[in-house]
Amino acid sequence: MRVTLDSEKCQGHGRCYALASNVFDTDDEGYAVLLVDGDGTLAPDQEQAAILAAENCPEYAIEVHPS
């Protein structure tokens, strides 16, 4: 699985890093950033958290893609 973040849509609500702190963090201004390197490939232990974060993003800035 792979995760993408559209940083232009992010409004900094913080739900993603509250629900998936092993996938997301915040920048100095409170907006989401991915902790996953490269093309966004998730480790198996990150997949469910990333899906939960995507489902709870009010701006739909997060997408989880099958491998």
Secondary-structure element order, as H and E? EHEEHE
Under the CATH scheme, which class? Alpha Beta
Strand content: 15-25%
For the biggest sheet, the summary is: 2 strands, antiparallel
Q: Give me the secondary-structure category.
A: alpha+beta
The percent range for helix content is: 10-25%
How many domain modules? 1
Number of helices: 2
* Topology-level CATH name: Alpha-Beta Plaits
Low-confidence stretches: none
Shape: globular
Average pLDDT, rounded to a whole number, is: 97
CATH structural architecture: 2-Layer Sandwich
The beta-strand count equals 4
Strand order of the largest sheet: 1-4
Give the C-alpha Rg: 10 Å
Q: Distance N terminus to C terminus?
A: 4 Å
Tell me what the structure shows.
The protein is of the alpha+beta class. The chain has one domain (about 1-65): Alpha-Beta Plaits. It has two helices and four strands. It has helices spanning about 15-20, 45-55, and strands at about 1-5, 25, 30-35, 60-65. It has a two-stranded antiparallel ribbon. It has a two-stranded antiparallel sheet with strand order 2-3. The longest helix has 10 residues, at about 45-55. The radius of gyration is 10 Å and the shape is globular. The N and C termini lie close together (about 5 Å).
